[in-house]
Amino acid sequence: MSYQRFLRRYSTEERESFETKTAAADFYRANGIPEAIERALNELFFHKPTDVYGYLANYFTNLSAPPSISRLNGREIYDTRGQLSIEVEVFCIVCNKEKRMCSAAVSSHFGPKESLLDWKAKSQERVDHVMTALQWISGPLSNMLKCQNPCTQSEVDHLLSNFYLEERNICNRVEESSPSESERVLTSPLPVQTKDKKSIDQGKKNNTAEKPFPPAAPPEPVLPGSLAIGSVSLAVAKTAAQLKGIPLYKYIAALKSQETTSQFHIPVSLVTLLSCGKTCPGKLSLLEEVILIPKAGQRVKQIITMTLEIQKEMMRIMNTSTKAGATQVILCDSGALTANYERPEQPLDLITEACTNLGLALGTEIYLAINCAAQELMDYSKGKYEVATGILKSPDELVDMYQTLISKYPAVVAIISPFRSEDKDQWEKLSNAIGDSCSLLFDSTYKSKTPPLPGVTGHILKYIHETTVSDLVCITSEHQGSLLMGTTGNEPCIEDSLADIAVGLGLDYVKLGGLSGAERMIKYNRLISIEEELVQQGILEGPGRCCTTDRKLN
Question: What spans are recorded as compositionally biased (Basic and acidic residues) (predicted)?
């Protein structure tokens, strides 16, 4: 009897029921459902868990399809300075349901600190960047990553980078087609050949003829919308770590080593003690940051406690001092103390006195670094650096000034951005003079693609704009030991991922700023949590990896 003749013996309802059952059996058989249920029940009986259905739920969750990105969502947020920024949310399909997984935001940086005169223009520029980024996130980026497995970081970042390059090429072609606009690039005026008697008297005499002053290179443009690239990359990485059930630092370490990391170490925290930069009160502009470098081997809590004690003693000294200009104590944007000083020796003397009073051996137990941010001090009309109000130094005179400081304060083992990148001869001269005892570091925030400078032994790496997680992994793999992670002045208020990134990348140092402000303390607290977790698991690497006893940072 044929199958069709067999079905005719039954009513329509019975035939439909039979066909449904047959289709169901075929569906279950094709997907291996009976075998999977049999194995699940056998495992259940063998383990006899207290929560029977919870065990079955976990068992079948492990058999479910890999999660996939369903969409991205961008939101406007405000950074630590109250300026507009973005946050990216990642939504995934997990077990046939859409779930909000993680959010992330990266720092924004649009060049040197704006003055009051160009504040309005900078604010509008930031709005344009944010609006473009939001359009990218909700439109092309969301469509591009739809159905993508969030655990394939390199593929995701490759797609993001290609999209960014295409947008940049489009922008470049538009600029090339309108030369009248492209020529309106900020250029530095040529130095005026005038004699400044005051600056000549205060600077050291130099009989050798100085080379022509190199003008500033055009600022590296920031593509509107680039914030979206870094934010999406980080949000996807956090999502993957959550799906794998591991901390972000372990996920990033796995991306870097392609295998399970058995030991981790906590980067040494470089803490900003004092700021006497261009935007601070007082005449002194040269020392944007005076940074404490603790001796390797100390726990993060110990470093924070010691730094707070030093700051308290510094405040006590400043508050009780009768010296002119040393009584006003405030906190600056970097979360550090700032005071009214005129000479670079004054803040260094203050720290030396505070350490002596506390019984801390400066140059043995703790060291110092100074961030000069010299690119913000150049007076292009005179071709000199304004190290303090009314005090100008030529690049060669500044070399002599640094030499004098380092010889007087041997605890200073690193100088960050002592010159502009254009002053290559002075970088080399300073390195030849003090390179054996003091490291020269370059903050490459402004020009990430700047060629290597002579004498530079390390760079400050910052997670901004179009930088992806894969970019960070690649850069640190190629330059292990010569990078330290740093922050910008425009940090997201609730983002602590920088601590995980620094640990996961295996960096020796991390520069998070001063001990004030939620955007900085959340990162310090995250470092403490990671350290405690590694201790509990017995996988915290012992001290000795990043020792500073040779009087150099690296």
Answer: 194-208
Q: Which helix (H) or strand (E) holds 231?
A: helix 227-244
DSSP string, 500-518: HHHHHTT-SEEEEE-S-SH
Closest CA to 235 of 9, 43, 69: 69
CA atoms within 13 A on the CB side of 35: 6
Alpha helices (runs of H) in 264-373, residue ranges in sequence order: 300-320, 345-358
Residues facing residue 269 across a β-bridge: 510
Strands 68-78 and 456-461: unpaired
CB atoms within 10 A of CB 317: 17
Integer CA distances (angstroms), 481 to 432, 484, 485, 521, 522, in order: 21, 8, 11, 25, 26
Report CA-CA distances (Å) from 171 to 73, 84, 450, 464.
24, 23, 21, 20
Name the β-bridge partners of 122. none
470 neighbors 154 (Cβ within 8 angstroms) = yes
Return averaged pLDDT per consecutive 10 residues of the chain, 554 residues in all.
60 79 89 90 91 91 91 91 90 95 85 55 84 96 97 97 95 77 46 45 47 73 92 98 96 87 91 88 90 92 96 90 56 78 93 95 93 90 91 94 96 94 92 92 63 85 90 87 72 79 93 88 95 95 56 62
Residues in CB range of 223: below 8 A, 6 or more apart: 164, 167, 168, 171, 465, 466
What's phi and psi for 289, nearest 5 deg?
-145, 140
Q: Which of 104, 110, 113 is nearest to 128 (CA)?
A: 110
Contact 325, 280 (CB under 8 A): no
Nearest to 283 by CA among 202, 217, 352: 202
- Are 251 and 244 a contacting pair, CB within 8 Å? yes
At 67, phi and psi to the nearest 5? -60, 150
For the chain, counts of helices (H) and of strands (E): 18, 16
Residue among 138, 44, 37, 152 at smallest CA distance from 89: 138
Nearest-5° angle of CA 378, CA 281, CA 288? 50
Q: From CA 46, how far away is CA 58, in angstroms rounded?
A: 15
